[in-house]
Amino acid sequence: MSDMGLSKDVIYDRICQLIEPFNKKSVPLTPQTTFANDLDFDSLTVMDLVAAIEDEFDIVLPLNMLPDLETIQQVTDAVEKIIKG
Length: 85
Prior knowledge:
This protein is mainly α. It is about 45% helix and about 0% strand.
């Protein structure tokens, strides 16, 4: 699904859609929503989400990048950077 024309808004919306099945507490999603504190995701849930994001956008998120991705906005920025090269 890699597409050079994806806007940041489209990427953000798709990531939010991917988060919803994991959002057991129905936390409202904003760019500043954190995975550990707000969504209470454990490491396994984060890895499942990463796999879903990688499949959705046909990319690979480098493992060394993952510790720095704490909010939805940070993930959106990382995905956009990888897609646009």
